[in-house]
Amino acid sequence: MKFLLKIFDKNRHHFEEGGKLRLFKPVFDATENFHFSPATRTIFAPHLRDPLDVKRFMSTVIVALAPCVLLAVYFFGLRVLAVIFVSYAAGGIIEVLFAVVRKEEINEGFLVTGLLFPLILPPAIPLWMVAVGVMFGVLVGKELFGGTGRNLFNPALVGRCFLAIAYPKAMSSNWINPVLEFPGRMTQYVTSLNTDAISAATPLALAKQGNWAGIPNLLFGNVSGSIGETSAIAIIAGGIFLLFTRVANWRTVVGTLGSFAALGFVMHLANPQIFGPVVWHLLAGGLLFGAFFMATDPVSSPITNGGKWIYGTIIGVVTLLIRNLTGYVEGVMFAILLGNIAAPILDEIIVKIRLRKLKNER
Question: Across all residues in the chain, what is the average pLDDT?
Answer without folding.
Answer: 86
